[in-house]
Amino acid sequence: MRVLKTIKELREYRKKIMGKVGFVATMGYLHKGHASLINAARKECSNVIVSIFVNPKQFGRNEDLDKYPRDIKRDIKLCKEAKVDCIFYPENKEMYPGDESTIVDVEKVTEALCGKFRPTHFRGVTTVVIKLFNIITPDIAYFGQKDLQQSVVIKKMTKDLNLNVEIRVCSIIREKDGLAMSSRNKYLNIEERAKAVTLYKSLTKARNAFKEGIRNVKELKTIIKKEVDKIIKKGIDQIQYIDIIDINSLKSVKKAKKGDAIAIAVFIGKTRLIDNIIL
Ligand code: PAF
Predict the structure, then answer these.
(1) 243, CA 20 to 30 Å: which among 45, 216, 262, 269?
(2) Ligand 1 centroid – CA 3 distance (Å)
């Protein structure tokens, strides 16, 4: 497995690959969710490239850029075990030399949900992802459904800008108790970790109610809110949003239907967790 740090090296490596290239973009601190994306790429592509880059442009001013977890040794080990062919591991100045004047900003689908609370986040994501696509020129890129809005935004950018890459969205990988895998789970202390499972619990409760015939959005949201409220300590934890949305437009629906998603974002202490479930 190669670990390449410069765009030039990566481009030279890429030129020599004949078969399909699968790409998994990450910010490192890899877990089983990333491994499942790598495995999906492995199945379809003869070459798998993983990028590891903590992208400063997608963090807001008061967000966790400096304390974002990093462990490159562990990441390299995981990638080797998952039979990754190449890691692209650029430094900040390689990706952002400091003289850039271009950002890629996808409109509308970035306005609701996380975009409402993290107004500069998605343009940071789309700018780095299009840069990575241009550097790596993958045939297929794999993203997780855990970041549902991100996957919709990237699909929209790919379509609108006629990017020559197929986007695959892979299912959420969960811990045994249902908590969606995320690098940020590392921030949770024991008490917070125990509370965190409530996100998934509340979503499944609402999905069960949907299966039993409840279509009223208010009713479904109340089921979730009631469950989450049990763990909310006033002044410490906070529900950011609970929404039932169409998975293409990300617009809130008036009446829930099969294929819609319930999405949730909650602060448990200082840690912001998101999750979603498809009805
Ligand atoms: O999902 C992530 O980890 C990041 O948003 C991504 C896609 C690697 C861009 O920095």
Answers:
(1) 269
(2) 19
- What tokens were used for 207? 């999905």
User: Residue 132: CB within 6 Å of ligand 1?
Assistant: no
34 assigned to active site: yes
pTM, two decimal places: 0.97
Sheet with 166-170, edge to edge strand ranges: 2-4, 86-88, 47-52, 21-26, 140-144, 166-170
For the stretch 151-203, pLDDT in tens is: 999 999 999 999 999 999 999 999 999 999 999 999 999 999 999 999 999 99
Q: Is 26 in the pocket of ligand 1 (CB under 6 A)?
A: yes
| Cα separation, 71 vs 50, whole angstroms | 15
The predicted-structure confidence for 29-56, as pLDDT tens digits, reads as follows 999 999 999 999 999 999 999 999 999 9
Report helix, strand or coil for 3: strand
